[in-house]
Design goal:
There is one protein chain. This protein is of the alpha/beta class. The protein has 14 helices and 17 strands. It folds into two domains: 236 residues, 3-Layer(aba) Sandwich (Aspartate Aminotransferase, domain 2), CATH 3.40.640; 128 residues, Alpha-Beta Complex (Aspartate Aminotransferase, domain 1), CATH 3.90.1150. It is 42% helix and 15% strand. It has a seven-stranded mixed beta sheet with strand order 4-12-11-10-9-5-6, with helices on both faces. The protein is globular and about 60 Å long. The model has no long low-confidence stretch (mean pLDDT 95).
């Protein structure tokens, strides 16, 4: 190290390692810049949010709540977090909001810590039917050592069987009745099942991770008015902010709210990624301005895409209900547990279309599923409309139905995407790209 300049001269091995990491980061940026990002759990952030996330806040601590910190130097962040709490209450129409969570799963762990003790019973959607892994014994439910019973499932409607689920809730008498999914096509019939939960004294928890932006934009359902005591969610899916989570509640009881805050800190978070929290605050401000239009256009694009895929000859689930009312579309590509979904996802990636394989009802092997779960929220963010979603469906058909060489399709994917780099529905005065790769 040069003591005068502070410059390090790395070994050749470490220099090459650093260059490899930098090139991989740039390559990932190029992949999404030139391709179609259609993973239902991803999104891109606005240029202003990008700048905030890259700020000095990334290495700072602010344990506690605004005005009640364990560190000095937090006055500015107190301003940021206080604004964010106010905005979150407004955007989600919630009496209580905690914006500290570092992910949707952490939000779930915190909520379960607040609502149940180890050994208590919980009901939730099975992962085989589309429930999130945090709702299972392998995830947050197991971490809290809760006794899990899963809801009977109506495959045709892609939702819990209402009558059977209500009967099960009354029989099991859970401490927490958890609703919401990872595969999430339609609003949950929440009111009926929440009523059954309240009969047996259960807290009602709704995981809105995937559909939080659609909820806030008034385009899906309103869980906090339909019986949910607590709603969790991610800040980076249909809500288009940086990675993180939210914890929201319909309760105005101060003791209850304190229990939720305490479950987050010190319960499941110490420092909670201040740069991401600040990015959430900017995303909340942008969503307040543009969120309704973004949510509306996202749902319209998903419905147009599903219809176009079906017209091309794909097996699109939930035809009888109009395929989807969210940002997601589900397609089946072969027999159960055949791995056909994995093969389809691989071929699409070769063509520059980034998706994820997914288990469908009846599949039992997570790495060999029969389906794909497709999301349109990122394409909507860069200006794709319902007409363009028909063009995207044709690209899928060329790769998966007509067996074209993915390399030839990739050139057309890139040409289409190159017309749609500028991010929309945000404060973007400079017209900057949503895919920085420099």
């Amino acid at each position: 190290m040069d003591q005068r300049t502070g410059a390090w001269t790395p070994s050749e091995e470490n220099r090459q390692l650093g260059l490899t990491v930098l090139e991989a980061v740039k390559s990932s940026g190029r992949l999404y810049r030139d391709g179609l990002g259609m993973i239902a759990s991803e999104n891109i952030v606005s240029p202003f949010v990008q700048d905030i996330v890259a700020s000095d806040l990334h290495g700072r601590y602010a344990e506690g709540l605004p005005g009640k910190r364990y560190y000095q130097g937090c006055d500015d962040f107190d301003t940021i977090e206080s604004l964010g709490i106010t905005l979150a209450k407004e955007v989600f129409n919630a009496p209580f909001a905690n914006i500290q969570s570092t992910s949707g799963t952490v939000s779930n762990i915190g909520a379960l810590k607040a609502l149940a003790k180890p050994g208590d019973r919980i009901t939730a959607v099975s992962t085989a039917d589309g429930g999130h892994i945090s709702h299972a014994r392998m995830g947050a439910v197991g971490l809290r050592d809760l006794a899990l019973t899963t809801y009977p499932w109506d495959e045709a409607r892609m939702e819990p069987d209402i009558d059977a689920a209500c009967a099960m809730i009354r029989e099991v008498k859970p401490k927490v009745a958890l609703f919401g999914q990872s595969v999430f096509l339609f609003p949950t019939p929440l009111k009926e099942m929440a009523d059954a939960a309240k009969e047996v004294g259960a807290a009602v928890m709704y995981d809105g991770a995937h559909v939080l932006g659609l909820i806030a934009g008034g385009q899906f359902q309103d869980p906090l008015r339909e019986g949910a005591d607590v709603m969790t969610g991610s800040s980076h899916k249909t809500f288009p902010g940086p990675q993180g989570g939210f914890l929201l509640s319909s309760s105005e009881d101060e003791a209850y709210q304190k229990r939720l805050n305490t479950a987050m800190f010190p319960g499941v978070c110490s420092s909670y990624h201040l740069h991401h929290v600040a990015g959430k605050v900017m995303a909340l401000a942008e969503f307040k301005e543009y969120g309704e239009a973004y949510a509306r256009d996202t749902v319209a694009n998903a419905q147009a895409f599903a219809q176009a895929l079906a017209a091309e000859g794909f097996d699109v689930l939930a035809e009888g209900r109009g395929y989807t009312a969210s940002h997601q579309v589900l397609t089946r590509h072969g027999a159960l547990d055949s791995g056909a979904g994995a093969k389809a996802a691989h071929r699409l990636e070769q063509a520059g279309i980034i998706t994820n394989m997914n288990m469908l009802p009846g599949d039992t092997k997570a790495m060999q599923p029969s389906g794909l779960r497709l999301g349109v929220q990122e394409l909507t963010r860069v200006g794709f409309d319902t007409d363009l979603m028909k063009d995207v469906a044709k690209l899928y058909a060329r790769v998966l139905l007509h067996d074209e060489d993915p390399a030839s399709v990739k050139a057309d994917v890139r040409a289409l995407k190159n017309e749609h780099h500028v991010i929309r529905y945000c404060f973007n005065e400079e017209g900057r790209s949503g895919y920085p790769v420099a």
